[in-house]
Amino acid sequence: MKPGEKRKGSGPFGRAEKMGRPVHKEAVSLLQVHPIPQSGQDVLSVAAHLVRRFAAEQRRDVPGISRDAEKFLAGHVWVLDDLSRRLWLAVANNRGNLITALDLSD
Length: 106
What we know:
The chain contains six helices and no strands. The protein is mostly helical. It has a domain at 40-104: Helicase, Ruva Protein, domain 3 (Orthogonal Bundle), CATH 1.10.8.60. The longest helix has 19 residues, at 40-58.
């Protein structure tokens, strides 16, 4: 193999490339990170669901999200991975209180 030459099957679709299968444009678009729709209510609904889910998984008693946290969440553009990570940490570090904006900030 020459320097700078890409080995077949080493890209993001390595297995499909090795098997000689075509990689479709639709598959590439699935890998793009899409923000959560920016209606404040959409973000809050997703956040409330994630808090309930993470609290159940971690066996924590978390009553919900405070008003200041709701304002913080509604005021940002969120990618699901980042929102999930922050909420998971907020739930993990919670001591039975509402999640606040301070709990969500970096």
